Amino acid sequence: MLQSTVSAIVPIARTARAPRTSRRTHEVVSLVTIDVTVPGTASAESRRALHSALGDDLRLYVMTIDRANERVTFRAEITARTLDNVIAALTTSLAQATLGRAVSSVLRRPRQS
After folding, report:
1. CA-CA distance, 82 to 84, in Å (whole number)?
2. Is 0.90 surpassed by the pTM of this model?
3. Number of domains in the chain
4. ∠ at Cα 43 (76, 45), nearest 5°?
5. Range of 57's domain?
6. CATH number (domain holding residue 34)
7. CA 59, 97, 87, 90 torsion: positive or negative?
8. Contact 111, 26 (CB under 8 A)
9. Residue 67 falls within a domain, yes or no?
10. How, if at all, do strands 98-110 and 58-66 pair?
């Protein structure tokens, strides 16, 4: 003869979880990219002036050296500063610089311990 079995439904005890904490492994940092044209035909002196004006969080790229008009155009990428701060630093430090295209964005980089 067949026997029927009935399985009892046992409620699963739920354990209390610790509140979920936000462990961000990355930080959000502002990034400003700006083109700066300065007078001259050599980039070394202008590079030093840009570094002293904008600090260590700076990457510089020489875009063009125009020997006919005696000017050098740099593309500068500055992290951890706003666009307003970058423009203020450039206009107070480099009197004869021409500011070109500027883009402000954010980037995620690993959090430093």
Report:
1. 5
2. no
3. 1
4. 100
5. 26-110
6. 3.30.70.100
7. positive
8. yes
9. yes
10. unpaired
